[in-house]
């Protein structure tokens, strides 16, 4: 009888334990480098977090920590999520130069289209080509911002010759190489450093999308903008929303499914649309601030495209040196941008 009683007790404990495990609740800490007032947090990260929480029926709570509140610098975010210092990060692979060479293909001059089309393209490209490059983390989403423009302080740019010697900020090694090829003096730095660099005259301007300028008040520190005409922008930057691999793998299936439901191509399309909407809103702020606007088009645009071609050639040579078929990656990236542009 004692044996039977013990067995029954063990069985009852197992029954109690199973629902407890099934109802496991987790808190995920999401770290990023922009202010809480940025559109990235207000229009993208917060809605994404709420969607995940709703899909998880309250069993996931996402806590967002902006402005590097959990410590470190923006270029360290990838390692923070890889090492489990935080659970999720939103960052730029390009903040660690040369570490992720394949994904740089979308940052080459005149490859990117609209934010919506190119975000879908880079997500599809990642699913096909980037598993090895990002194997150390669990990628949730790749996306891009709208094609960048020049935001200048007292040094307007209307022609290629106007760039000569100007100190201009860019975010990644590819965009810095492009600036050098165009005759500028590139200054690489994460975007949170740009306002101080402008105010102190460390840089004459910055290569940025409009959407980030309002939260950082960059429109108050610049007085002219130069935009690139045509269906392909002069540059974009690739963003990554990624989760610690062990943290994701250790979740119950139902909670993995809640995250998976807001990952991948459909979420990339949504992110791209968010960036396009906020890009237009932020540009209007520059208009209302009285900025001058220059547009590079026609024969002048051709000069810029020709001057930047060596950046593409150098990247292809680098890929060859790494035994990577860069030409195939470039062709695929361009094709995916075209397909998703036509499909929008």
Automatic annotation (TrEMBL):
Key words, A-Z: Signal
GO biological process: transmembrane transport
Pfam families associated with the record: DctP
Signal peptide location: 1-22
Coiled coil: none
CDD domains in alphabetical order: PBP2_TRAP_Dctp3_4
Highest taxon of the lineage: Bacteria
InterPro entries assigned to the protein according to its UniProt record, in alphabetical order: DctP_fam (IPR018389), TRAP_DctP_sf (IPR038404)
UniProt cross-references to PANTHER family, sorted A to Z: BLL6794 PROTEIN (PTHR33376:SF15), PTHR33376
Protein name in UniProt: C4-dicarboxylate ABC transporter
Species assigned in the record: Oceanibaculum pacificum
């Amino acid at each position: 009888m004692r044996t039977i009683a013990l067995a029954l007790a063990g069985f009852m404990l197992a029954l109690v334990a199973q629902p407890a495990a099934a109802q496991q609740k987790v808190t995920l800490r999401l770290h990023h480098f922009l202010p809480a007032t940025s559109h990235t947090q207000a229009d993208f990260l917060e809605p994404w977090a709420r969607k995940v929480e709703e899909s998880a029926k309250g069993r996931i709570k996402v806590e967002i920590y902006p402005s590097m509140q959990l410590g470190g610098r923006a270029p360290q975010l990838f390692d923070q999520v890889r090492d489990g210092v935080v659970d999720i990060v939103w960052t730029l692979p390009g903040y660690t130069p040369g570490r992720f060479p394949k994904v740089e293909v979308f940052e080459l001059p005149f490859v990117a289209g609209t934010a919506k089309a190119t975000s879908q393209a880079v997500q599809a490209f990642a699913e096909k080509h980037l598993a090895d490059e990002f194997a150390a983390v669990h990628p949730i989403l790749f996306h891009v911002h709208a094609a960048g423009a020049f935001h200048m302080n007292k040094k307007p740019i209307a022609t290629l010759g106007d760039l000569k010697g100007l100190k201009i900020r860019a975010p990644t090694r590819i965009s810095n190489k492009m600036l050098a090829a165009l005759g500028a003096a590139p200054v690489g730095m994460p975007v949170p450093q740009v306002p101080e660099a402008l105010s102190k005259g460390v840089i004459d301007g910055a290569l940025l999308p409009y959407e980030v300028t309002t939260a950082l008040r960059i429109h108050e520190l610049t007085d002219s903008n130069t935009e690139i005409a045509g269906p392909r922008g002069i540059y974009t930057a690739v963003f990554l929303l990624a989760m610690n691999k062990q943290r994701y793998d250790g979740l119950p299936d139902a909670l993995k499914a809640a995250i998976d439901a807001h990952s991948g191509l459909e979420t990339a399309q949504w992110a791209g649309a968010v960036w396009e909407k906020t890009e237009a809103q932020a540009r209007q702020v520059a208009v209302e601030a009285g900025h001058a606007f220059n547009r590079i088009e026609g024969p002048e645009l051709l000069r810029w495209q020709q001057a930047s071609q060596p950046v593409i050639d150098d990247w292809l040579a680098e890929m060859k040196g790494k035994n990577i078929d860069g030409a195939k990656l470039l062709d695929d990236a361009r094709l995916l941008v075209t397909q998703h542009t036509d499909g929008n």
